[in-house]
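Dock iron/sulfur cluster; give full complex structure.
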Amino acid sequence: MTHRTRQLLQRLGENNISAFYADTGREAFAMVMAMIPERSVVGFGDSLTLRQIGVVEALEDGDYTFLNPWRPGTSVDENVRLKKRALTADVFVTGTNALTLDGKIVNVDGHGNRVAAMLFGPGKVIIVAGVNKIVENVDAALRRIREKTAPLNVRRHPDLDPAPPCGETGVCSDCSSPWRICNKTVIIEREYSNSKYKPIITVIVVGEELGL
Ligand code: SF4
């Protein structure tokens, strides 16, 4: 584990966010699945990282009620219904756009379902991120999202019609596209940890490059 990753894990812990390290995607997969009891209702924030390490396939095939709004053939109404139901799931699994060295979790959403579920509602939120998501601070996180993540994400969704311009130009023009994917920005700074309310977020940092 690098010094940078160790610092991140420590700062997440100080912010009352459980943080673990996995050397590989395979190890992270095992950790995530061990945290999800069978027969759980599991919400999903869409995540290339979770697809890459095999969590999505395992949840689809296993003994879970997996609320996947992006299952092929899902209607728009059903997509919205599954996103709403995920807000009160037993477990919500997702990736993230960026983790800052001082232990903050930074995300930008188009629809807002992912950031909403990360904030409050599910019994447990599990976030998996490759080391490529670690950045210096919130400014660097927001820059990374606009300059790298969003354009790549637009390209990953050829169904967005008309597509936001950054998909083609690779540059953010602060667009007003009907499919703008940078509508809702959420920065999680800390979690409650007191006699009444327990923290719900666990972050697993993987020592590999994953996702966008
Ligand atoms: S605001 Fe528009 S152009 Fe800028 S990154 Fe987001 S989707 Fe792309």
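Observed: The radius of gyration is 16 Å.
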